[in-house]
User: Fold this.
Amino acid sequence: MMQRELPPTFNSGYVPDERRNIVDWDENESGGWLVGVLQGRKGLILGVANEKSIAWGVARACHHEVSELGFNYLGEALKKRVHPLAESIHSSFVEPLDVGDDAQIDDFFAKVEARWGRLDFIVHSIAFADRESLKGNFRDTSRADFHLALDISAYSFIACARRAARLMAPGGAMLTMSFLGAVRAVPNYNVMGVAKAALEAATRYLAHDLGPEGIRVNAISSGPIRTLAASGVGDFRKLMEKSARGALLRRNVTQEEVGNAAAYLLSDWASGVTGEVHYVDAGFNIGGGDPGAEPAAPGA
Assistant:
């Protein structure tokens, strides 16, 4: 194995510990090379539902960068899905966690502390809204559905961040997952758009709180990806088609692309980045929108 010292500017802004100033390069199983920017780090990936989850794309990218990972699950059905995935990347930390229950959150992070003694990063990829609230008119959102969506999709990041920060040293990182519906009115996204707006605001306020402790907090706003959660959004297929047409790259993004961006934000390569919403959407958010299935006629 070869070891290479990082550039002098790599850790500007804080003094790293010994495991944060060397990148290990090693051949992977396919014959390629791993940078290992997360080597020695211990991190949580919250919200994996199956192999198509955005969270699983993040987990794979972090695993490729040589980090040790832990996972949560909600209910026996998800346990049966998450355990094999965790085992496939040699993770043995898979514990139950309902982020709507403070006692369960306390218990989960107590297990993290007992297992690792510290935490280097956490990825929050959890959102939920009643399916009926993700179609029709936003004005018909009930108080109960609003509360549920905001609690699970936004407040849970705050609750987990509070516990995670206690286990982090300077250089720690937190990351959550958002969507363009936080800043634009996306058809059928409805109350989840409001929840994502709250989540992005929470990211900034957490970054403000935790910055003096050397802990960074960011969000990724991904383009639409076909996941289990996305299946609850009405006309999601049309949303993906419009996104691909309107993206500057004229395509949708992949689970792997989001995962790679996440690995960057969790690593010291992003040591000067906090409080940001990083778009991974093939440029859709800065474009003019969907140009339509066919180009307009000349002079139209």
Notes: Residues 38-284 form a domain with the Rossmann fold fold (CATH 3.40.50.720). Residues 143-165 form the longest helix (23 residues).
